[in-house]
Specification:
The structure holds two protein chains of two kinds. Helices cover about 40% and strands about 30% of the residues of chain A. Chain A is an alpha/beta fold. Chain A is globular and about 30 Å long. The longest helix of chain B has 22 residues, at about 55-75. The relative contact order of chain B is 0.18. Chain B has a five-stranded antiparallel sheet, with helices on both faces. The two termini of chain B are about 30 Å apart.
Chain lengths: ~100, ~170
């Protein structure tokens, strides 16, 4: 899976491309957890190029949100398409994760 | 014929395996990369039947969740000469009938409890959403264990507003 990233001081924007499913969610997990572990205090997932997400992808988002919350940092997801947003709504994650 | 009766007849036809000549049938190996291959074939089949992108997204999601569950937990990621998952789809009137059949050990996904989707971030456990999505997306889900196979039969209703207008094509 192609994952783009931009970092500036303590912020990072991670932009995955394509589908996020059980077949590739572990590579996204590795990348997101790496940035969180390296001390980023503001982690943004840009979903403008994500056209599909399954529960395997949501699992990564929940882990990241929990970890950032416990370390007092900010975690958010932006630019979701409507179908991807519907998966967040179905799971109730739209109420516990910041979606911009 | 009353609507309820018509649905019942269609479902029986479906479960008994009588095939609409234009039905979709695919067999996949229990390996995660197969899910995407299946999704692409399902997308082609449903697009050709004027099913909307939004409905196809939901069906992709349900199939993805079921297949990844079966592949990872049912088969433990082991492929074998006899291991296969069969997916059948038929579009009849305003309903899409889907069945997923595997020969992994007995597992009724409908026995899984629903997650608490109102729990706070701290209390929310990681996992347990896949089967919940299947139940949310489908209008009906039935499980059977027959001939050493797990068979999940599902129905999703689409209305005219979800269909792409093909008149004039």
């Amino acid at each position: 899976m192609e994952i783009k990233q931009e970092t500036s001081s303590d912020s990072v924007i991670i932009s995955p491309v394509g589908r996020i499913d059980s077949n590739n969610s572990s590579s996204l997990e590795e990348k997101v957890m790496f940035f969180i572990g390296s001390g980023a205090t503001n982690v943004v997932l840009n979903f403008s190029h994500v056209d599909y997400i399954s529960s395997a992808g949501l699992r990564v988002m929940l882990m990241a949100a929990k970890k950032m919350k416990s370390s007092g940092g900010e975690f958010s997801i932006c630019e979701m398409n409507n179908n991807v947003k519907s998966v967040f709504k179905m799971s109730g994650f739209d109420k516990i994760i910041t979606i911009n | 014929m009353p609507a309820a009766e018509s649905v019942r007849v269609n479902r029986r036809t479906f479960i008994d395996g009588a095939r609409d000549v234009t039905g979709f049938a695919m067999s996949v190996q229990p390996q995660l990369p197969e899910i995407r291959r299946c999704a692409e074939a399902v997308d082609d089949y449903l697009s050709a039947r004027a099913i909307s992108r939004d409905v196809i997204f939901q069906i992709d999601l349900a199939l993805d969740e079921l297949l990844s569950n079966t592949i990872q937990w049912g088969y433990g990621n082991k492929s074998g000469a006899d291991n296969e998952i069969r997916i059948n789809i038929e579009v009849i009137d305003q309903s899409i009938f889907i069945s997923v059949e595997d020969n992994a050990s007995a597992f009724n996904p409908l026995d899984m409890p629903d997650p608490d989707v109102d729990a706070s971030l701290q209390d929310r456990p990681i996992g347990g959403l896949g089967i919940y999505f299947v139940r949310q997306v489908m209008d009906e889900v039935l499980y059977e264990r027959k001939n050493n196979k797990n068979i999940l039969s599902m129905r999703l209703n689409v209305d005219d507003t979800n269909k792409t207008d093909l008149s004039g094509v």
